């Protein structure tokens, strides 16, 4: 599921997922869309199950049929959004395009992500942001001319370094209140990597 899918948000805002049209097969998705819509409006600590079900137009029993509580909903929503991002970049061959795609997706729900980051549920977000960084670093190192002659052991070390550097830029972005230019900072990391920053000296 693509949480930031514009059609889903528009349907929810228009009430098209309410009442009878919020059928069981759509209920889970509608709940996740409602969560992110609310997270883009206010902090997680201010969101209740009542808010979510009213936004979605379902009853509390339907919510608890799909999710044990709000933390469980957040965890599953983050997993699905992460999987969607990874699927989006799976066929991309250039690293610049991959970076742009990832950052564009993060910016689509940046307020919601910021509110999760500042909550007690931030650990799940950290875990899956690391998944995205690891995927990017692996593709970069394995596809880069600068590192093609390195041993597999050295490539793994370079992948770990690039993963942690990219994750560090995300942490800086969140901790700055998302005021820094994330694309500019990550692009500089990639430029340094292109110059062999993480390459082992012979």
UniProtKB/TrEMBL annotation:
Residues 25-85 form the HTH tetR-type domain. Transmembrane segments: none annotated. InterPro entries: Homeodomain-like_sf, HTH-type_Tx_Regulator, HTH_TetR, TetR_C_Firmicutes. Keywords: DNA-binding. It holds the Pfam family TetR_C_8. The keyword DNA-binding applies. It comes from [Bacteroides] pectinophilus ATCC 43243. The lineage of its organism: Bacteria, Bacillati, Bacillota, Clostridia, Eubacteriales. This is HTH tetR-type domain-containing protein. One of its GO terms (molecular function) is DNA binding. Residues 48-67 bind DNA. It comes from the Bacteria.
